[in-house]
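Board notes (copied after class):
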Amino acid sequence: MAKTTSTFDLVVRERQPETTLFQWVYDEIRSGILDGRLRRGMRLPSTREFARRYGVSRGTVVTAFEQLHAEGYLEGNVGVGTYVNTLLPEDFLNVKRGSATAARTWKLPQLSKYAQRLGPAANARSQPARAFRAAEAALDAFPITLWAQIASRRLRGATRTLLADVDPRGYRPLREAISNYLGTARGVRCTAEQVIIVAGIQQGLELTARLLVDPGDPVWVEDPCFFGVSAMFKALGAKIIAVPVDMSGLSVVEGQKRCDRAKFAYVTPAHQFPLGVTMSLDRRLQIIDWARRTGSFIFEDDYDSEYRYSGRPIPALQGLDHSDLVIFAGSFSKVLFPSLRLGYLVVPPGLIDKFAAARYTMDRHSAVIDQAILCDFINEGHFGRHIRRMRQLYDSRLGVLRESVQRHLGTFLTIPETEAGVNTVGWLTNGLRADDVARAAAERNVEVIPINRFALEKQTPEGLLLGFGAVDDQELLRGVKDLAAAVERCSDTRRRAAVS
């Protein structure tokens, strides 16, 4: 392209008082290039001439030219002049669909089988909690000011050791605090050496599965279960053996009938998700005996056992196991706040080195500063006090939900007597379908999830997952009334269909 010299003003707008001279010169030249006043290949005046013409220092003009040159808008060197580039950065960013430049002339790389088995990622929920959002803590009740004070103190006193890499298993003082807590609160038998810090239970489960399960290996999974569990096993190529859950938890007898020699069993014995039942002592002993006989491992997901509102928390399955076949997992993201992304595994002594090596290979270790802050939060007694406050709050919110459901939905929805967690199941009656109710509820800004969406094979009764932990009393009452309206509409529709 032929190169010409500009013969008109490069600056067309007056400088505003709050705009620096550099920003003014830079913006005017760049906007002139983008809107076509300064054509591609056009030669700009020298920095000396530009400075004289517009009454600014030459240093300001030189700095602006250098910035535009670095960003690809100008080209040229000392002695040959400065020109508008013939190929602008926007040419790379704004390729038009269907243009010759956009036409695909290469073969796309082939994804791995793991990638092909992956489903879509779940969307983050950034909006304020509404009735009846499930699996979320009461963020409005978290002592954020206290957490910020501990974080500030930790950062002010940060040492070189705290800023360096740590053991792949995690920050040693935090592992000691977790070991002490689990021994007294959950009946878990472990030392700090057995604790592996992970970014939540989901990462801990994938880490465990990668070490213990090969593609094609059979794995017992509760039916129904959390979406992420089945999706993870599917992506790893495991053979999922759906084992039904009843009022006593996972049916070990049924699991043995379906596949006695499974490599691995995933269970939520303290508070099954999503049904909310607790695995009976008989079932716990049965699954441990099965693991001993077959040489299989058990993954115990203890995601929210801290929140039990009557009696003491149920002791962990791991505490009953004397054969080192149970891997215990817990999460601080569930009981404190989701963006914390800190959880833990308790692994058998014989597997410590393998888990540490796998953790190092995966992402080395979790952020040490966050681990140190959490360690202080636990050791100074704040964690225990927070859990006690949350038990009272969640118990109260569950009571509000029960009473309101009984008043407005008593003939259509039944809530079982489970006294734990931040979710509960509501079983529909009178022939109502959960999917229909969920759609009608969504139109009224109410979140409910049909239980059948968690099912792998088993046909579950018509029910809804109702979260109450993250929702205050006023929103719970609003949600129940709007859910009642949605249920009434579905009931009317069903009656009309029956008549016709």
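Comment from the instructor: The first strand starts at residue 43 and ends at 44. Residues 15 and 24 are 6 Å apart (CA to CA).
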